[in-house]
Fold:
Amino acid sequence: MKKLINSPENVVLESITGLGAAFSELIKIHTNPNYITRADAPVENKVALVSGGGSGHEPMHGGFVGRGMLDAACPGAVFTSPTPDQMFEATKAVNGGKGVLHIVKNYTGDVLNFEMAADLARAEGIEVEAVVIDDDVAVKDSLWTAGRRGVGTTVLAEKICGAAAEAGHSLKEVAALCQNVNKNGRSMGMALTSCIVPHAGKPTFDLPEDEMEIGIGIHGEPGRTRTKLKSADEITEVLLQPIVEDLPYKSGDEVLLFVNSMGGTPLLELFVVYGKAHEILTRQGIKVTRSLVGPYITSLEMAGASITLLKLDDEMTKLWDAPVLTPALRWGV
Amino acid sequence: MKKLINSPENVVLESITGLGAAFSELIKIHTNPNYITRADAPVENKVALVSGGGSGHEPMHGGFVGRGMLDAACPGAVFTSPTPDQMFEATKAVNGGKGVLHIVKNYTGDVLNFEMAADLARAEGIEVEAVVIDDDVAVKDSLWTAGRRGVGTTVLAEKICGAAAEAGHSLKEVAALCQNVNKNGRSMGMALTSCIVPHAGKPTFDLPEDEMEIGIGIHGEPGRTRTKLKSADEITEVLLQPIVEDLPYKSGDEVLLFVNSMGGTPLLELFVVYGKAHEILTRQGIKVTRSLVGPYITSLEMAGASITLLKLDDEMTKLWDAPVLTPALRWGV
Structure:
């Protein structure tokens, strides 16, 4: 296993410590239990957003903490749900009196633990709503998940709902918006290679040198199918078609096109996929009005990519464009 | 070879086409010869900055084109210098009447071709200055380079000099500033794995499963030494010490600490290195006042990292903080 780490036991704590040192003006690192908050948390009279999940998907979620996005993120061990006490402490730390929204990716452990944390917080008089993101069209059920998995739409929901919270929307409004983003977002991913979880020390799965996995999850969960390697154009078609058909996205729709690297796929390749996806959508009359391209929801060093489409309305577009100031996403400030 | 490409021949053109589609409000793609300009080029009465080099180092340089940074970038084939006609056409396209600065990484092909392009441009009455970046402390001479190689400081020089040009500085001033940034910047990198150039179809070099290469270049050029794998803390020490001693950086200095992924190293690991580097510098009384962490000057999917230090003065700090609006770096706007 070739990794820039000191030990599997310490990698998450050391990594968030480094993140905190690099962005001390934006975020604050809390340990034992581990969570990351905005440096100015709690923000009085603003709905607070808390997310979290296993580590290994960086910059998600710690890189999305800051003004206009998340108030807190809870990093679990690599590919392992954070614990309810992390979520509970984070919820208390960022509660500004207007309630807290939990944005939860649909993995069984995450969902259960966020539910427990919400109960604990409510018992202390904090108003909590939770929205579960389940946008992955690849498979119905999967390892670790009942129903669809939560993937790329999570990033978009955190940005858009963070902007709504910043603009003063109520907890009910921000939660309804988050549901709406989830309802209009669809994703699918693929892998060229596996990745190595530090604790495991060996690849999560085996993938022969001439094969790829279509519909993979962000923890290497099996997808729809294994096939021989195909060209970037063909892979883009294979990912995009089920996404477009699922909502469905139709001619005249305005969409945000998010092309994501699983980690090991460089930008040189990612923009080939983006260019083809943009061309296919344009040909179908689906108008790409906003874009996000890069490694934002990753699987360690896995080579591969995912595509997410989000059907935009005017409100979502405006909230997407609103200022954001986090380690990983920043504009307008 | 597992890559999201259609063919080695088309990958660069398809990739910059995708980049252009994703960021059409910021940049414009020109083909035959290939170069990327600001969407609003030429900007009248502003010094224009042109850089370029082999592809495979994304987001450098195409991702750094935009307001407050580069006016144009010339992407060569993967790990291959762009041609003089690319540089010449780019220079003409962005010349706003106040002269053009070529920022050149010190590789023999790049230096020669930029010199030829500068001569061609001068023959047409365009004032051109060139600054060669040679900040890599690893080796004196190397494959492809006489003298030190140009690496991480290039990114910082492009940002800082771009801000100076935007602020109305003259060509002589911007060139002198670029020299000054180069004089105060030092870098060193290491690799855990090789990478595969699409045309070659096989790894650039072999690195056994239990070894790493210290002092590697961004094209996989041999470095200082091959050793057994070490911990992230040890590797950080090994990279940072020669950098600090070379300038030398001293107690009381203010520095920008840039920790760069070679491509395949995920943020989870990169922030472990950043945290350790920050700790070492702080212990030595060297004050980290600005930071950059992420994959900015990469070697395709190579796993590894590089560290760059830049000694800051007040002017450089102010120019670093100035607004920038490019695909890969944006803040303040």
User: Anything to note?
Assistant: Residues 102 and 283 of chain A are 38 Å apart (CA to CA). Chain A is about 30% helix and 25% strand. The mean pLDDT of chain A is 97. Chain A touches chain B through 62 residues (CB under 8 Å).
